[in-house]
Design a protein that fits this description.
Blueprint lengths: L2 H15 L10 E2 L8 E3 L3 H7 L3 H10 L7 E7 L3 E6 L1 H14 L13 E5 L14 H16 L3 E5 L8 H12 L10 H14 L1 H16 L2 H25 L18 H10 L3 E4 L2 E4 L8 E4 L7 H14 L5 E7 L3 H14 L7 E7 L2 E2 L16 H16 L7 H21 L7 E2 L2 H4 L7 H18 L12 H11 L1 H11 L2 H21 L9 H24 L9
Parallel strand pairs: 5-6, 5-10, 10-11, 12-13
Antiparallel strand pairs: 1-2, 2-4, 3-4, 7-8, 8-9
């Protein structure tokens, strides 16, 4: 349910009854339990225009707040803050209704569903995916999962790099090595290095490679066949990574640079017709107001740039896909590029003015020394190797569990290891650089995926021991039950905020709070003790069941699996 929206409505109603006009009412979660469940801090700005004491205004507003149903208590604090306590009977009833409905959010939570395009992962087909692709891939997938869950029409787009000058070099080398010998492409990194070495040392080979670039772009059948063979094999490497990460990207989601090739001349024509193009040193450019550096659209030799392809992609996504919102999950270092590209498409009319364009920026993965994550010899870490190591480390941490078969241990290691890598990334603000730390991410303590999985497994253990029907009726009789129930009812508010701000860490922070509250509830409120009244036992089982559903759904949005036993 939209809990905060419901409280806002009640406060707005009280303000209206007090004949006080406010443009927007927004309550916030109380910072401490002694201050209530929510606080309204919007009285202070009203004091000056109303020429009244803020505490006096707050007192009048409080007198109009209904405290018989949703709200049980309100009080004026400090110079004019309003502290709000919610009725435990109402909270319990709402939580029970959610459990009965088998849906954690409103059936139509998105008031006006949007068509949203999430552009993420974006590997270069010339090389295997490395750790630099991890953040875009899992942040983008989480945002796509979240928006889909909330009811938006989400289109995933994997804008792969497949149309650059290096491809002439690669297909020339592929032809030289023998197209049928696929073993040469098992290690794309080495294949690229070998091709580059030939290119640098053999002028005849380099000339042939340059000729192939022109032939690819002009549609030569032979070169395009080799190019497509290379792309297919390269995509296969990506799909292996996506499968290990449980990421929802398929071949159908691929919209490579080459996909927009036919639109590139049309972009030039459109910008020229609108009078936005100017020639500078032979290149066709767009000069934006307040920007010193122009956006180069076409080089003097007729070649196109990344900006041209991005303009064509945005135009296609607006004109053909009819997107209301387009989110690019790309490294923060590309901020200047996207700022310029977004301005050009809006000023040129290539994209509708009311279409929301977002650069969902993220920082760099660092090692413990605070330097970019590299191999011991300074090379780039392959993403597939990192994921395999995470599973091995997880396997080592659980190898003493004698009650599991080897297959069960393998499955558990995969879930824990991959979940640990993903959660560690998603649990920090995406715009920050973050320290990659194996020990921390595989810890049972703190805000980790294993902590969440352990809490969920503990709940499943309770249900196995009870082995009976669980009533959906929740009764709140203690402070910890009140806090846990209230936090569970905030689930939709949390998801809505995370979707609006594209902040996965909003979800992880919330899940950590839920799991921590549950652990305290588990300690303070015995569930299956023989001397517990049946009604109380059923209520605590129901609250545990609702908690398990919230944790499972939250982790599912993050692309992380749960386990019944850890």
């Amino acid at each position: 349910m939209k809990l905060k929206q419901h409280i806002n409505m009640l406060i707005a109603q009280a303000l209206a009854e007090a004949s006080i006009e406010v443009k927007q009412v927004s309550v916030s979660e109380a910072t401490k339990p002694e201050f209530g469940d929510y606080q309204f801090n919007g009285i202070m700005p009203l004091a000056k225009p109303l020429r009244r004491n803020p505490r006096e205004i707050a007192t009048e507003v409080v007198s109009h707040i209904d405290t018989t149903t949703v709200i049980s208590k309100v009080e004026v604090a400090g110079p004019g803050f309003i502290n709000i306590w919610l009725n435990p009977l109402w909270l319990a009833e709402e939580a029970s209704n959610i459990l009965k409905s088998n849906s954690l959010i409103d059936k139509n939570p998105v008031e006006q569903a949007q068509k949203v395009i999430v552009d993420y992962s974006g590997p270069n087909m010339a090389k295997e995916m490395h750790v630099g692709h991890l953040r875009s891939t899992i942040i983008g997938d989480t945002i796509a999962n979240l928006l889909t869950y909330l009811g938006d029409d989400v289109i995933r787009q994997n804008h792969i790099g497949d149309w650059g000058t290096q491809f002439g070099m690669l297909i020339a080398y592929l032809e030289e090595q023998g197209v049928e010998d696929m073993d040469n492409l098992k290690d794309l990194e080495q294949f690229y290095k070998d091709a580059k070495k030939r290119f640098d040392e053999d002028e005849a080979f380099a000339t042939k490679a340059r000729e192939y670039v022109v032939k690819i772009q002009s549609g030569d059948t032979h070169c395009l066949t080799l190019w497509q063979k290379f792309i297919d094999i390269s995509l296969g490497h990506c799909e292996e990574v996506y499968e290990k990460l449980s990421v929802n990207l398929t071949r159908d989601d691929v919209r490579a640079e080459s996909f927009y090739n036919d639109r590139l001349p049309q972009v030039i024509e459109k910008l020229d017709q609108d009078g936005l193009l100017k020639v500078s040193e032979g290149a066709k450019c767009v000069f934006l107001e307040d920007e010193e550096i122009p956006v180069i659209i076409q080089k003097g030799d007729g070649g196109y740039l990344y900006a041209t392809t991005d303009l064509a992609a945005l135009w296609y996504r607006s004109e053909v896909l009819k997107a209301d919102r387009i989110a690019y999950v790309v490294d923060a270092r590309q901020a200047g590029h996207f700022k310029q590209v977004f301005r050009v498409v809006k000023e040129s009319g290539l994209v509708e003015q009311d279409t929301l364009l977002e650069h969902v920026a993220f920082g760099t993965m660092m090692d413990k020394s605070g330097k970019p994550f590299k191999t011991r010899d300074g090379g780039t870490v392959k993403l597939i190797d990192l994921l395999d190591e995470s599973v091995v480390r997880a396997r080592d941490s659980i190898k003493d569990k004698e009650d599991r078969t080897e297959q069960e241990l393998d499955d558990l290691a995969r879930i824990i290891g991959i979940g640990a890598v993903k959660y560690a990334d998603l649990s920090i603000s995406r715009e920050s650089n973050y320290i990659f730390d194996w020990d921390k991410m595989l810890s049972l303590e703190g805000n980790t995926s294993l902590y969440q999985q352990y809490a969920y497994a503990r709940m499943q253990s309770i249900f196995r021991k009870y082995d009976g029907e669980i009533s959906a009726k929740i009764i709140i009789s203690t402070e910890i039950e009140h806090r846990l129930t209230l936090t569970l009812l905030r689930f939709e508010d949390i998801l809505t905020r995370a979707a609006r701000e594209t902040t996965p860490h909003t979800i992880t922070n919330y899940l950590y709070e839920v799991a921590t509250l549950f652990m305290r509830f588990y300690e303070l409120c015995p569930i299956l003790k023989e001397d517990i009244a049946e009604e109380t036992k059923q209520s605590r089982l129901a609250l545990s069941l609702l908690t398990s559903k919230v944790i499972k759904q939250g982790l599912e949005i993050l692309g992380i699996e749960v386990v019944d036993r850890v």
